[in-house]
């Protein structure tokens, strides 16, 4: 019996699905042949029809259910179930074949879509090409009919299209568009520029001097209106001009322009700058005598003059047309002129790196120019001036080295000058309480001038380098003062020694003031934020924390060294004073206090003759120190002297002798009526600085009854306080009481 084609197709499909044998269940080949024969007999050529399969499946479900109820024949049920599985497999094969046919259809559709997409791109390409041609033709037509505004709008449309095609891969189309844009843009720009230059000539631009400004006749309404119209048209052409300039800059550099670069000048200013640029280059970039490296002030001053003289003209004639665009004409002109100055200064600076005199002069002139530009011409701080040239590595290092070199030379000169150790205000009373010698004032003025030079720099990192230089100079000056001090230390009361002490105190006072200055506080925060280890000098976490919290200052290290030097010098001075006073006080120490008779009337008492040399010495030394030392230092000196003298008299005069009542009274008279008043010129209660001597005199001069009572009982502190004794301990009081000869033994 011949096999029906549908059945044969089914057999092939089964073979194709051999990789999934589970789809047949666990039936044998005989069962499969039986099932296929049954299907061929029942359906024939309609076997591969979905309707036939569905009909058979429903029929089998019905008959199976009926047979199961009537005849429980297991073999029949088995073959029925098997036939059901075959039908399900057949359904899966039909789905598989359908998907295969669909995949081919999808591939065909994909090719069709790609072809359509390619045709669509080609149509867009041709439309874009046609649009460029239309714009080009319209620009040509408008220019022929003097329709400048319409031509500018067409060029703007080209520029917008160029921006839109910026990321396009159609390189030939983009190149054609850009060439077309440049062609028509340049034609319009040249025409407008020529008309604008002619109009400016009628207005006698440029205004190069005050004379030419005053001689400028008033322009007619027609010329002024024409100028405003040309300015407006040039501004409308600005978008395409910026785009073309940016393309040219990018192609020249091989990469896009940096995003922070200043925007290009507006076209009217570019045109107005042309005659000024010619003049600048003629006078300062050629072989003229005005192009002198030693005279940078010539071209810097000339540029400022042009800015000043041009301002009224710009505000009157040009600014009204720029108001709608939000452009400040004066700032734009200054920006354009600044580009000339920047180029010139950069060129000159590189040529002056090996000439100290010329370089220093250039820096001074640039700093002065920047100051005047920002203050008098309202040049915005966000726009670059000339500082960035000074901050270039080579120039900045040269500047720092020159500051150090000149400062060291000036230090040598100021320390060796004739009046280095005298105050310039010495003959003016109450003029300078710091009494600083001239060398110290000159040195701090030098540091202040350095600060003023670098204070306006826009870079905190560069400012910190100058600060480090200043600290280095202060330490160098301290070392020099120390060397001179050692030479003068043999006589610390000498004028030069005291002047050195005044200098140290003056410098430390100024540095403390600087530590509270806003500028140095800002630098302090910059140090913390930038982590400048060079300036920090390897500070630890605690010191860094103090700087961050503003508890410390940038000058703490220097102040510590200066304060130590000041303390050592004051100590050496007081030691010398005490040696002199002790020598003069030797007879007073050996006075026979025990044999001094009592005197009832103190008005008849006089200073002990043995105390006169000591008192005269103290008086003269205090007077000399008052004249030689600054007020703060003299305050420290006399208080230190009082403290040492108090301890000396208590130890070598009082504790080393025994006293009669007359001797105690004489001691108290010498101290309270003669020694204490010597210090009374400098404070209201000098006895408070002689606590040991004052309280010892109180104990020695107590009445006999009170003294005996104190001596018999260990005196409590409250009792001593009632007597005016606060410094001496009860043990000290007992020792003093034992020095009184008039008290009976207890």
Structure description:
73% of the residues lie in helices and 0% in strands. By secondary structure, it is mostly helical. Residues 1-7, 13-28 and 254-260 have low confidence and may be disordered. Pfam families: RINT1_TIP1. InterPro entries: EXOC6PINT-1/Sec15/Tip20_C_dom2 (IPR042044), RINT1_Tip20 (IPR007528). It comes from Nothobranchius furzeri. Belongs to the RINT1 family. This is RAD50-interacting protein 1.
Question: In what range is the share of β-strand residues?
Answer: under 5%
Mean pLDDT: 84
Q: How many helical stretches?
A: 29
Distance between the termini: 161 Å
Structural class, judged by helices and strands? mainly alpha
Helix and strand sequence = HHHHHHHHHHHHHHHHHHHHHHHHHHHHH
Uncertain segments are 1-7, 13-28, 254-260
Principal-axis shape equals elongated
The major β-sheet equals: none
Radius of gyration: 53 Å
Helix content: over 70%
Q: Report the count of strand segments.
A: 0
Protein name: RAD50-interacting protein 1
InterPro entries: EXOC6PINT-1/Sec15/Tip20_C_dom2, RINT1_Tip20
Family: Belongs to the RINT1 family.
Pfam families: RINT1_TIP1
């Amino acid at each position: 019996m011949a096999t029906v084609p549908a059945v044969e197709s089914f057999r092939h499909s089964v073979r194709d699905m051999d990789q999934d044998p589970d789809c047949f269940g666990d039936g044998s080949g005989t069962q499969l042949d039986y099932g296929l024969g049954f299907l061929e007999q029942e359906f024939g050529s309609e076997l591969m029809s979905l309707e036939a399969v569905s009909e058979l499946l429903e029929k089998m479900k019905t008959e199976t259910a009926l047979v199961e109820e009537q005849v429980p024949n297991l073999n029949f049920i088995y073959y029925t179930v098997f036939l059901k599985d075959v039908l399900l497999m057949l359904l899966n094969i039909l789905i598989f074949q359908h998907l295969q046919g669909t995949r081919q259809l999808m591939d065909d559709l994909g090719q069709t879509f790609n072809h359509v997409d390619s045709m669509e791109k080609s149509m867009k390409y041709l439309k874009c090409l046609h649009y460029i041609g239309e714009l080009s033709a319209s620009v040509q037509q408008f220019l022929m009919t003097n329709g400048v505004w319409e031509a500018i709008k067409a060029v703007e449309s080209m520029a917008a299209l160029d921006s839109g095609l910026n990321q396009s891969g159609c390189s030939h189309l983009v190149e054609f568009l850009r060439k077309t844009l440049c062609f028509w843009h340049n034609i319009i720009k040249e025409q407008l520029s020529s008309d604008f230059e002619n109009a400016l000539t009628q207005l006698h631009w440029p205004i190069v001097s005050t004379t030419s400004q005053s001689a400028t006749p008033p322009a007619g309404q027609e010329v002024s209106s024409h100028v405003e119209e040309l300015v407006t048209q040039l501004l409308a052409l600005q978008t395409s001009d910026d785009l073309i300039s940016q393309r040219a800059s990018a192609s020249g550099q091989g990469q896009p322009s940096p995003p922070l670069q200043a925007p290009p000048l507006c076209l009217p200013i570019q045109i107005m700058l042309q005659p000024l640029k010619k003049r600048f280059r003629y006078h300062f970039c050629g072989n003229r005598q005005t192009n002198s490296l030693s005279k940078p002030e010539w071209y810097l001053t000339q540029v400022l003059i042009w800015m000043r003289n041009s301002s009224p003209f710009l505000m009157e004639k040009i600014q009204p047309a720029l108001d709608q665009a939000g452009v400040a004409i004066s700032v734009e002109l200054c920006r354009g002129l600044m580009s000339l100055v920047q180029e010139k200064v950069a060129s000159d600076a590189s040529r002056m790196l090996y000439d100290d005199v010329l370089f220093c002069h250039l820096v001074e002139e640039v700093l002065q120019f920047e100051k005047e530009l920002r203050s008098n011409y309202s040049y915005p701080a966000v726009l670059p001036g000339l500082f960035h040239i000074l901050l270039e590595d080579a120039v900045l290092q040269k500047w720092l080295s020159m500051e150090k070199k000149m400062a060291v030379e000036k230090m040598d000169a100021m320390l060796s000058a004739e009046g280095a150790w005298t105050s310039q205000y010495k003959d003016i009373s109450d003029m300078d309480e710091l009494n600083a010698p001239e060398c110290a004032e000159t040195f701090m003025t030098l540091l202040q001038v350095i600060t003023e030079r670098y204070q306006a720099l826009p870079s905190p990192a560069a400012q910190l380098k100058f600060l480090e230089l200043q600290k280095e100079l202060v330490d160098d000056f301290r070392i020099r003062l120390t060397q001179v001090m050692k030479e003068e230390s043999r006589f610390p009361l000498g004028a030069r020694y005291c002047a050195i002490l005044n200098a140290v105190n003056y410098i430390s006072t100024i540095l403390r003031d600087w530590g509270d200055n806003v500028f140095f506080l800002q630098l302090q925060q910059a140090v913390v934020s930038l982590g400048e280890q060079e300036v920090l000098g390897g500070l630890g976490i605690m010191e860094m924390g103090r700087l961050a919290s503003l508890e410390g200052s940038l000058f703490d290290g220097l102040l510590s060294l200066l304060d130590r030097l000041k303390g050592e010098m004051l100590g050496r001075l007081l030691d010398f004073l005490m040696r002199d006073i002790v020598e003069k006080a030797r007879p007073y120490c050996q006075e026979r206090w025990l044999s001094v008779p009592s005197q009832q009337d103190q008005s008849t008492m006089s200073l002990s003759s043995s105390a006169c040399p000591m008192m005269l010495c103290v008086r003269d030394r205090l007077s000399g120190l008052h004249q030689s030392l600054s007020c703060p230092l003299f305050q420290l000196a006399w208080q230190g002297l009082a403290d040492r003298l108090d301890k000396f008299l208590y130890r070598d005069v009082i504790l080393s002798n025994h006293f009669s009542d007359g001797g105690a009274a004489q001691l108290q008279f010498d101290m309270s009526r003669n020694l204490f008043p010597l210090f009374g010129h400098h404070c209201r209660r000098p006895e408070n600085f002689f606590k040991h001597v004052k309280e010892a005199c109180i104990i020695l001069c107590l009445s006999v009854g009170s003294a005996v009572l104190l001596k018999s009982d260990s005196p409590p502190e409250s009792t001593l306080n009632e007597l005016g004794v606060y410094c001496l301990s009860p043990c000290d009081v007992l020792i003093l009481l034992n020095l009184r000869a008039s008290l009976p033994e207890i």
